[in-house]
Design brief:
This protein has 11 helices and 2 strands. It has 293 residues and is mainly alpha-helical. The protein has a two-stranded antiparallel ribbon.
Length: 293
């Protein structure tokens, strides 16, 4: 294959990675922005989304799209309920202390990971794609489902943007993000806001996992890479900045996909880590982050 078509293929693969990473990282950024909690267990919510997707699709017979649609609805709801309960039982009792919540979410990471190992087993499980269309380009055919992932991520980010900018719930979340004490003084129950935001962040990670699991496989150790890349994206974009997170996710996802196709996934991870180092040196608050006053 000539260089041009090969580069085009690499960009498509990079866009697929960027799409999944954007949805996952926005969930992490939302939790940090509103709650000031570094959720180390975010990758395990992603893993649970994929595992529950496999569980749901294995019980639904007929056309694969039926099982996939059911998984896209049920899996995030279950993961959101688990996250909501975790926030009520653990994070709220720690009064959202930054250091204590990091340790608590590390513990939650291991609990979720080992629970998945006990109940679903150690083997990777495949999920059938909802359709098998191939898009014909002049040089090659490309999996139509991967293009669907890109479109679904764009729609999902549009929904998140509308929620944050044009709804009462978004206004409450932004008020809590700006100043918890002032928001509380105006009658906002910031503890309830935190619980729902934590659940929403986990649900976004679960949706990303359901979208990607037909082209990967569900496995109880699959949460590490999304967690690492999400942290890289959130640091580069600026802690708590949704706009910065989306732009950084596109940059990291594209570079990761292109370098993985032309060279190796290891080199892609090294470049991402170097980008974090440069950002921390020259813009410690991230590309779109604001300095604390």
């Amino acid at each position: 294959m000539a260089f041009g078509p090969y580069l085009f293929l690499a960009i498509l693969e990079g866009l697929v990675q960027a799409s999944v990473l954007t949805v996952t990282a926005v969930g992490l950024s939302l939790v940090f922005g509103v709650m000031r909690v570094v959720n180390v267990a975010h990758g395990e919510f992603y893993m649970l989304g994929a595992v529950f997707a496999w569980f749901v699709t294995s019980f639904i017979t007929g056309h694969p799209a039926l099982g996939f649609i059911a998984a896209l609805i049920i899996s995030p709801l279950i993961v959101g309920a688990i996250a909501f309960a975790s926030e009520r039982l653990v994070l709220k009792r720690l009064n959202y202390d930054p250091e204590a919540t990091i340790v608590a979410t590390i513990g939650l990471l291991y609990i979720l990971q080992q629970s998945a190992l006990i109940f679903f087993g150690p083997n990777a499980q495949a999920v059938e794609p909802p359709f098998y269309w191939r898009i014909r380009f002049p040089w090659f055919g490309y999996d139509g489902y991967k293009l669907f992932i890109i479109a679904a991520a764009i729609v999902l980010m549009g929904v998140v943007w509308y929620l944050m900018k044009h709804t009462k719930a978004g206004l409450v979340m932004r008020a809590t993000q700006l100043d918890r004490e002032t928001a509380q003084a105006f009658g906002i129950n910031v503890d309830n806001v935190s619980a729902y935001v934590f659940a929403l962040g986990a649900m976004l990670a679960a949706v990303a996992a359901v979208l990607v699991v037909p082209i990967q496989q569900a496995h109880y150790l699959m949460g590490l890479d999304p967690l690492l890349l999400s942290f890289i994206v959130v640091i580069i974009g600026g802690l708590g900045s949704i706009q910065g997170t989306i732009i950084a996710a596109i940059i990291i996802g594209l570079s990761d996909g292109i370098l993985s196709v032309f060279f190796s996934p290891t080199l892609a991870k090294m470049v991402s880590t170097l980008l974090v180092a440069f950002v921390l040196i020259f813009r410690p608050n991230g590309l779109f982050g604001k300095a604390e006053r």
